[in-house]
Amino acid sequence: MYQLNEILENKVINNLISGFERSPDQLNKPHESDAEIIQIGNLKLAVTTDSISEEITTGLYDNPYLIGWMIVTVNMSDLAAVGATPIGILISEIIPETFSEEKIKELQRGISDACKAYGTFVLGGDTNEGKNLVLTGTTVGIINSEKSISRVGCKPGDLVYSSGKLGIGNAYAISKLISKTNSLINYKPIARIKECELLSKYASCCMDTSDGLISTLDQLMRLNDVGFEISTDLEKMIDDLGLKYAEDNHIPSWLLFAGQHGEFELVFAIPQNSNQDFLDECIKKRFEPVELGKVIQPKEIRMNLYDVLIPINSEFIRNLPYETKDDVNHYLKLLLDYDSELKKSHNLNFTSN
Amino acid sequence: MYQLNEILENKVINNLISGFERSPDQLNKPHESDAEIIQIGNLKLAVTTDSISEEITTGLYDNPYLIGWMIVTVNMSDLAAVGATPIGILISEIIPETFSEEKIKELQRGISDACKAYGTFVLGGDTNEGKNLVLTGTTVGIINSEKSISRVGCKPGDLVYSSGKLGIGNAYAISKLISKTNSLINYKPIARIKECELLSKYASCCMDTSDGLISTLDQLMRLNDVGFEISTDLEKMIDDLGLKYAEDNHIPSWLLFAGQHGEFELVFAIPQNSNQDFLDECIKKRFEPVELGKVIQPKEIRMNLYDVLIPINSEFIRNLPYETKDDVNHYLKLLLDYDSELKKSHNLNFTSN
To answer: A318 — phi, psi (to 5°)?
Structure first.
């Protein structure tokens, strides 16, 4: 079995929590769920915490409204992935002295708009002064259905979907961090709170794409001891703006799945025998998930690149940001080199046939 | 009535939340409770979030074990003040690259030890890299009793208590920030989780002393439209180490109530007609609260300084850190000047009699 600890992020987390005792009321194990699930009497509480810090220091997020929107969205997305209905959010804000009144207003407007969009509320918070802007959100939700969904449970043969088209998060990241264009990409993801009740009825596993598609599939692979065959054409999986951005900037479009700035869609699996019921209900609810492929037995991620199913080294891709640190140009170069290698080995296979 | 907005901290918070809609399920109003109380079905959930950031950048907390201990304690203390039993804590950690493995271990050990001390658990968290160490904790608890306690509800005549002796937080702060001695003061406060069930049976209001005694009384004064007469001798209210520290450093001991680094005791009021029952139960539970004085009609805080009951300008004291910013020496000087003024006016009264 692929080890969770082969991924540096998992290893860091495992080290941090190694000395902690686990609550007997906690239903999920570490890594197995986008939010923590706690049994309190008859109630299943979902709680999750997420900070926005690196995104601000790197310059990825420099618009206060977007930062406000995102601190709610990233946390709501984790609730959505476990099928929870939000109760509200607590927000801690570390605000530098130099951050203007105008920017604070925009930050709060982003938070307020996002809460309205998700039908939820700011329950409370904390405010401190600090050298850098740091926001931490903690959401609380309730799981109403009998069955809760987690990252674990899919089986070979299950169909794999995304709740929407992918790639905009990484297109935005490249535009902000590398091209340094003032964001032609309008990045304002929406957590799939509305769709999660339907998903929790049918899905055998679910995880949000907060770290991009390949990271999501890699983590699901390690947790479920399965692989994924992503056979759908890239054009059907990537949203139009992302596709156009990749083309204009001569970036292989599949790299929009490799970067680790996601789009906060949900990736989930549906067992074949309930697929038709699921699709029927999607039509009724006007929900249009994107079929990506299927769960397979071999523990690998195969993607339909250049019209051939090619296994992807997702361990390399996931660990790359840790190894290249803050050097985003070097990071992108290594991804482009990896794409060239794949093409080379593919052409070799092709010509040898 | 004294306005909440006369205090800069309250004003900042009110500005931040002015655009937010309030949850219909939230039982407390802003400022009225140390933790947020949410009704979910039959359940009263208590949630609260608190960050440790300024304490680290100023050098007040430089011991990783203490930082770990405190991120749990500050949050548990807020749960205690509303009479909640903890379910667990979520912790977001922003860790600088330069923070050693050894320090991370100590940080996590502090968290783990505090959780054990309070009989609670780390439920989950988030980790990010950042320029400065920032910790944000969010605790979740349950209020089991029918009646929940908040900061609001005390009446003139009620007796005022603290769950323990006070002043160690500010003695520690002076020793770290001004004397820059390597902390002869052993600061490791314990949130009053064990005592809060008893308090919630009897107390008409409750608030923790996270910002020091005078800030706590001032906020309770504004919220309850009452005053406080703190008639107990300083020697009985201040712990021995704090008293000795003040004496050795020629600091008037009552200034250990004025500074805003607290000791995480609970300040609460008990109606006179239930005071005997309360005290009887305290003896049974081996809980030794410190009687401070009583709730009074006039909206002022009178303290027994230099054997005379003197009204304290708590608005001035609370706003002083905002006005002197990071200049702790100037801050202490202004507090000492204020003490001199008080003494002068007291002597004048005394000689004119």
So the answer is: -70, -35
